[in-house]
Amino acid sequence: MTVAITWLSHAAFLIESSKGRVLIDPFLSNNPKASLKLQDLPPVDMILVTHGHGDHVGDTIALATRDNALVVASVEVVNWLRNHGVKRLHGQQAGGAFEHPAGRVKLTPAFHGSSLPDGSYGGQPVGMLLTVEGVTVYHAGDTSLFGDMALIGDEGVDLALLPIGDNFTMGPEDALKAADLIGPKMVIPMHYGTWPVIDVDQERFRGPAAGKPWRVSIPTPGEKIRLN
Ligand code: NI
Ligand code: MN
Known about the structure:
Elements: E1 4-9, E2 12-17, E3 20-24, E4 46-48, H1 54-57, H2 60-67, E5 70-74, H3 75-83, E6 89-92, E7 97-100, E8 103-109, E9 126-132, E10 135-139, H4 149-153, E11 159-163, H5 172-182, E12 186-190, H6 203-209, E13 215-216, E14 224-226
Parallel strand pairs: 3-4, 4-5, 5-6, 10-11, 11-12, 12-13
Antiparallel strand pairs: 1-2, 1-14, 2-3, 7-8, 8-9, 9-10
């Protein structure tokens, strides 16, 4: 069956397969670069939230409520969402994997912060490895470069979603090193251009990537890419 991914801008992605629709870090409202409005998004089955920051929790509460979707995040983020009325929740922590109906999710470490929009403690930020229908996608979350990304690559990553916006996360040069450590088939850069502070030129990533054993895809927000 076909697995397809759509970049919705920033760190927000929609992954569709015969197992269901999975949203990662659904930041659409108040996102100046969002390609879709909330009401234009089809019903989703599972929402993955990498950490508590507003540009990642985004519209999780509204969408989880609208679609009765399962939300997977750190135990701390899950507890906060429960207090905000979200019903279907599943807490995991870095290193832990679980087979959900819409795909297998393994949480990975990420080096960043994770306070929630009201200042509550959000635990450790994470990245997400989603495996569905034989395709593994690594969403790095917001993170710096770290050497153990090579171990994440050992999981067999088909597609790596890597931040390149600098300032809050890796910039393009560190993201190039990250991709070399992970060794995916394809990289989609993310978390750049949303606001002036992370408005880096994507060519700083795409240019030096020419000749690498992995390829770069830079979709326009809303463009769907087939992964198998
Ligand atoms: Ni963040
Ligand atoms: Mn962020």
